[in-house]
Amino acid sequence: MFSAIARVFKTPDLRRKIWFTIGIITIYRIGAFIPAPGVDYNAVQACLDMGGTDGGLYNFVNMFSGGAMLQVSLFALGIMPYITAAIIVQLLRVVIPRFETLQREGPQGQSKLTQYTRYITIALAALQATTLVSMARTGALLQCEIPIIPNDNLGTILLMVLVMTSGVAVIMWLGEQITERGVGNGMSILIFVSIAAGFPGSMAAIWTTQGWQTFTIVCLIGLTIIAAVVFVEQSQRRVPVQYAKKQVGRRTVGGTSTYIPIKVNMAGVIPVIFSSSVLMLPQVLMQFNEPAPGEEPGQISQWIQQYFGTGAHPVYMATFFFLTIGFTYFYVTITFNPNEVAENMRKYGGFIPGIRAGRPTENYLAYVISRITFPGSLYLGFIALIPLIAFVLIGADQDFPFGGTSILIMVGVGLTTVKQINAQMEQRNYEGLLR
Questions:
Q1: Is 256 helix (H, G, I), strand (E, B) or coil?
Q2: Is 88 helix (H, G, I), strand (E, B) or coil?
Q3: Which of 35, 65, 46, 66 is nearest to 142 (CA)?
Q4: pLDDT tens per residue across span 85-125
């Protein structure tokens, strides 16, 4: 392994890309701890030390910002507006034919979709920044009575919203720089860094509160989960495809054999994000409908608090599990079109051995997708429940790092980045990072 890493740094072009990527990551992490203008940094730290946000509503979003949101920093919104915008643009392909046309136009159409994603990201960033600043003013963000914005006049509020929105634009630019001049996959690497930044603190909290025995068990469980996730993420069903021979002039072309790779987890981490977002809505409604001092909450609020106020309740777990399964089928349905794949195969003279071209091929692909998606959805559902189960067993809900969205993203991005570095090494040395 060390010899492989040494070969990476012996390649000048690749070494320059890696150091450039590390530099961009450093800038990103520094921005996560610089407080936004008008924020009292000492007051923020005092509120965090009081532990009022442990297991709270915003820890999920805070994870994607690398802890920047609860620090109320320049990069407080993190990469989440971009993730949301990218998902919206992808879903709009089903609703707006223009988006589907751009998707088929190749690089030029992709460039236009990327531009739309940027516009939606800035709009979402402005909306989320306004909400975040409003919650910081009232103390709902950190659940603390200490004022973290001492001078909350209109000018200060507008400046904070502007700076946080600009911070999202800077993060997008940093991610694009990694894609163009670094090792590639820029936005995903920034997400990876944001999640990985919380691992040391989470492991330290488990050591401090649960002891070294629980810490050792968590490490062993984590390694097992990572191995299982790597195995499933790399698993795929290969549907064989044969292309007929064609006579073009004096040359015979075609006659090749290939396959359609259908991953077990085609949906990635998107269904888990959807499910988590849906289950956040009841808690958001509760915060906007808090009873006045001295009044008791209504029956609906009590019911929401009982069943959805914490992830430890079986009803919450079951809802989370089945929502994840449902969103997995939904997302795979809109991202993989058997009709389009079958039509492209027919157009270029391809066919699946034993299956007629056209409608039979479409039906066969739909059958394979439905069979593959079922175990993939169960896998995502169980992975999403790991942090909730950890909360019940060892009381380490937000401190348990090996599970749910975090581990799926980190393993996925890690595998993709290693493959990209390996491909670049093979282009130069005929020997990759992975032997």
A1: coil
A2: helix
A3: 46
A4: 888 888 888 788 888 888 777 778 888 888 999 999 999 99
* Coil/strand/helix, residue 245: strand
Check whether residue 214 and residue 227 sit in a common domain.
Answer: yes
Domain residues for 339? 199-402
Q: Total structural domains in the chain? A: 2
Q: Report which of residues 405 and 319 the model is more confident about.
A: 319
- Contact present, 194 and 63 (Cβ < 8 Å): yes
Count of residues in the chain? 435
Task: Beginning with the edge strand found earlier in the chain, give each strand of the sheet holding 236-243 in spatial order.
Answer: 257-263, 236-243, 350-351
Distance CA 350, CA 181 (A): 38
Question: Does residue 361 or residue 405 have the better pLDDT?
Answer: 361
The helix (run of H) or strand (run of E) holding residue 131 is helix 107-138
Distance between CA atoms of residues 188 and 198, nearest Å: 16
Compute the Cα dihedral for 102, 107, 112, 113 and give only its sign.
positive
Check residue 394 and give its pLDDT.
62
Say whether both 97 and 39 belong to one domain: yes
- pLDDT category, 207, cuts 50, 70, 90? confident
What span, in angstroms and rounded, lies between the C-alpha atoms of 132 and 118?
Answer: 20
The CATH number covering residue 33 comes to 1.10.3370.10
Nearest to 171 by CA among 152, 153, 190: 190
Rounded CA separation 25/417 (Å): 15
Q: pLDDT tens-digit profile of 408-433?
A: 888 888 888 888 887 777 776 655 55
Same domain, 1 and 32: yes
Same domain, 171 and 218: no
Residues ≥6 apart with Cβ < 8 Å to 358: 342, 346
